[in-house]
Amino acid sequence: MADRIEADQLDAASKLLKHTLQVLDHRTGDFNELPLLTAQLAAALGDVLRVATSRGMRLATPEHL
Predict the structure, then answer these.
(1) Distance in Å from the first CA to the final CA of the chain
(2) CB atoms within 10 A of CB 23
(3) Does the pTM exceed 0.85?
(4) What is the pLDDT of residue 59?
(5) What phi and psi values does residue 27 have, to the nearest 5 degrees?
(6) pLDDT digit string (tens) for 9-62?
(7) What are the residues whose beta carbons fall under 8 Å from the beta carbon of 9, sequence distance 6 or more?
(8) Are 13 and 52 in contact, with CB atoms under 8 Å apart?
C-alpha cells in the first residue's frame, strides 16, 4: 500500500511540475494562480522528499549488512 501511495505522490508531482512549466514558459493560464501553484509545489516537494527519504532508508548499506 505504501508503494502505491508513493507512486501516486510522484505522479501528482510530475503532473504539477509539467503544468507549472507550461504556465511559466508559455504564459498560459492566469498568473493570479501563482500563489496556489506555489503552495501546491511546496506540498508536492514535501511528498517527494518523504518518498526519497523512505526509499533511501530501505536501501541496504555496507555497514548494515
Answers:
(1) 26
(2) 16
(3) no
(4) 77
(5) 55, 30
(6) 999 999 999 988 888 887 666 778 889 999 999 999 999 999 988 888 777 566
(7) 44, 47, 48, 50, 51
(8) no
